[in-house]
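Listing S7. Sequence submitted for prediction.
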Amino acid sequence: MIVRLSDYMRLCKNGDATPAVLEALLQCRREKNSTLLIDAGEYHFYPQQAMVCEYYMSNNDGGRKAIAFPLIGFDGLTVEGGGADFIFHGRISPFVIDACKNVTVRNLSIDYPRPFFSQARILASQDGYTDLRFDRDYPYRVENGKLVFYDPESGWDTADMISYLVTEFDAERGIPHRLVYLPYWEHPERAGFLGGLVRSVRAEALEDGVVRLYGEDKHRVGAWWVATHGHRDHPGFFIQNSRNTTLEDVTLYHCAAMGVIGQTSENITLRRVRTALHKGRLVTVNADATHFVHCSGTILLEGCYLCNMLDDAGNFHGNYTTVERLIDSHTFVARLMHGQQQGVQIYRPGDVIALVDRETLGRVGEITVSDALMINEKLIRVTGEDELPGNIAEGMAVENFTQMPEVIIRGCEVGWNRPRGFLISTCRRTLIEDCTFANMHHGVHLTGDANSWFESGCVRDLTIRNCRFLGCGYTEGAAVVIDPSIKKRENNYYHGNIVIEDNLFESDFPRILKAMNAENITVRHNRWRHIEQDLPHEPVGENGFDVSFCRNVDIEQPETVE
């Protein structure tokens, strides 16, 4: 069945297309494999008439969400955007794809007229203060020594936020610089593991629209001061409990949180998904361009352009929980540890989960799940098919390595963002090929920890080939970094079976690989080219390699090319 949005636009009032979309989608649900056809043009969406549902989104903020396109419970649906431009006003989520099969969304763009970040020129900077000038696209006010950003149209403001994340951007090239920090207006002790970035500041409004911030680090005069100040409430696409989801030819000019977040879903494909700069802006997506948690099947990113975000290009991982308490010989309660992982049901009957030592990240026991009950957003009651391992104890980490995807990343360009390219934490096959990386930190990062972010997943089959690493690590790190958060590093090999071959590394000094706690690493047939960089950073190790606490490492020095 073909449903045309134009047949429902009569329902729109005051330029709000939200009710028309809802009625058209309800018509699409009447038949399997429907298509919603949208004519080219500009469409505006507001939260006042949107469907509202409560969702918990891993690595984002849970709660009630106003949703412009609630794709819920569909079996076969294509949203054909026809090249339309979708403009979202205020706190509203563009797309939710929940409990669906075989959904495709294509040929459209997403933007917000008032982004959830603000940028200013740095007019002066001395020890102890920095002067800023914002243009009219970034309304603000100074209130009791605090710099408050707001949107006069939709009414949101940042008066409830105690800090922002600030990055300095180069004046000429518009790329992020070394300086990244958190200006805190109050309660800096709440910074947690980011405490090292905290700067206590006070704002003062000067004449001629200038804002002076006292207590900052010294900035470069003429550079850009960019603050992300939105909660992670409304990602561009939220995909949950779905199978065979495809996004094609989608452009994300801005999203209030991540661009695409997929969780507990099977087979997600992104083809030619782009984060693109709106004229005059330095930032696209307010957080990660893409993020995938406890997915399965295959995640394919092909021909994507993921640049100019305020966080990583892509993250693929699971979530550690911890043992809260033991109920009986078959049952225990697990706790979701990180605030932005709570509410996500990551255990299902049939999953094989592991008990994990939090100091070594080593697996010390396995459990096959027969039942998993979500008690509340923080606790899951887990029952095993057999008796629990005798060494199970409160405080241990728990990892679900059944719900992990194969990952294929092909022909993508990522970079000019804060901070990294792709974070890989899956034990299944991962292939990264024919990609270009230009990240201020690492291009490819393998990590994992059970004490801070609680992001799980040891890499056991990774190939990086035919890629170009253009100046990666110009502020920190290397093109490829392997550094799981492990307290006991001796004779501990968390990641393994990694091949880095036929790549081109370009930098002022060699910064190719930093690796710890990994095994079976092969580096071969690569090239290195010297280039001049604006922000020269120290070389890595000897000839671009720094390897420790690893075994079975075979490194072939790259060929130097002109």
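Caption to Listing S7: primary sequence and predicted structure tokens for the chain studied. The chain has a mean pLDDT of 95. The first strand starts at residue 2 and ends at 4.
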